[in-house]
Amino acid sequence: MAQITLDKTDLKILQVLQSNGRLTNVELSERVALSPSPCLRRLKQLEDAGIIRQYAALLSPQEIKLGLQAFIRVSIDKSGELRDRFAQTVQTWPEVLSCFALTGETDYLLHTFFPDMNAFSHFVLDTLLSHPGVQDAKSSFVLKELKNTTALPLGHLQTTA
To answer: Which domain of life is it from (predicted)?
Structure first.
């Protein structure tokens, strides 16, 4: 991936796209005060550099009957082979949106969605705890979502010029 230096226009493109990734190039260029050709060229550079890694549709979990959201803290066997196997296997579990390796008391944090408690129980008992590397799992259920964004902060990248 190419390394690029981000200027104010690049940061504006990133900011606008984080709030609406479906804009056409013409709409994007208007919002960042740039003509379409240079805007498209900058967008391509941001994609090629890996700064923009993908575009996605964000679905409403409740509208697709995934009303139970849980965070599962997983403790794993310390053997490298089982740890690697867990890291590969977690990629195949569609219920797991994110998996983070952590410092501290637990090894991994899984962010999961389920239609109901039965589906959650089935996943934990029959899938997660049956994995040979998993020693323990502790869950917390989301009662209320106070903030949920996919937009990364960009303020630290702004130059003062």
So the answer is: Bacteria
